[in-house]
Amino acid sequence: MGQLIKLQDYISRYEQDIYRYPAQFVRLKKQQWTKVKAAFLAGELETLAESAVKEEEYIALEKDTVFTKMKKIFKRQETFTETLESTEVSTNEEPLDLSFALSSKPETVEELKRSFLNQVFRFQLKWVSSTIREKSYIDQVYFFDEKLKFFLQRFPDNFLILYKPIFLVKNAPIELEIIILSPTETWCITILEGEENAAFIGSKERFWVKRHHVYGDKKVLNPLLSVNRTAAVVTKIYSSLGIELPVKKAIISRNGYIDYPSAPHDTMFVDKKIHQSWLERMRSTSSPLKHNQLKAAQALLDYCQTTYSHRLEWDKEIEDGSKGENRE
Length: 328
Hints:
alpha/beta; six-stranded mixed sheet; 14 strands; 45% helix; 18% strand; NERD domain-containing protein; Pullulanase
C-alpha cells in the first residue's frame, strides 16, 4: 500500500521525520495485518475488535499522560521554544493507533484484506493531517476520494505519494498534480477520466476533445499543462539540491482511450489499453525504500505549504502550565 506523505496543505507527520515514519508505517501495517489475519483464521476476529476498542481508550489515556508530562517540563523551561526542542523526541513517540474495528464480518481472507486496507486508508488520512501537537482540518471529501484510494491501495509500501500538494513557488502557492516517488524514479501524474470508454483527442492546443458515443463531444483542458507544470517544479527543486532521481510524466485514463498521434515523447500516455500492464510493472518494483528517495521526498516537503492549528488539548496544557509557573 502506497504511503501518503502529503495531502493538499495539511500538516503531515512525515514532514517531522521523513527518514523515520515510512519504515515505521511499513512495520506497523505488517504487524497489524499478521495479527488480524491470524485472528480471522482462528475464528477470534470479534474478540480482536473488542480489544481494539479497549486499546483506543488506553491510547487516549496515554496521550493525556504525555500532555501532563509536557506541562511539568514546561514549568522548568524558560521559553516555549526550548520546551519543544528539549522534548522533541518524546513527543514524536505518540502511541500508534492502527487498530482493527469490525464494521461487518468478512467471509474470506480477500474480504478481510479489503476491509483492512480501507481502515489503513483512513489511518493514513490521520497521519497526513495531524501530529501530536498540531492538526489540519481535512476536507471530508478525501475520505471518499476514489482516485486517492486507488493510488494508495494499488501501489506497494515503498512508494511515497503527494496528492495534489500545494507548493510555494516564488512565495506564491500553486497546486500541483499527483507526485509518486518510487525507489528509483519520480512520477508526475495527471488523471484524465470521463464516461466509460470515452476517447480523448490530444493536440497542442489549450483544449482537447472528449468524444463519447452517447454524450457527444466536449472540450477538456489539455492535461499536459498541469503535468508539465508539476514536473517543472519537481525538476527545479531536484536540480537546485543536486538530487539525482529521474522525473517522468504520465497522463492516465483508466476507463477511456487517448488518441494523440503526435504526442510528445517525454510523456507516457496510459489509457485503458495499457493501464493494467503499466500498473503491474510499477507494482513489481521490489526495491526497499532508498536514502535518495527519502532525500527527494524531504526536498519536496520542504517546499510545500502547510496550514494547521495547535490542538486544543495542547494549548490548554500550555496555558495551565503558564498559570502554574506564575503562581510559583
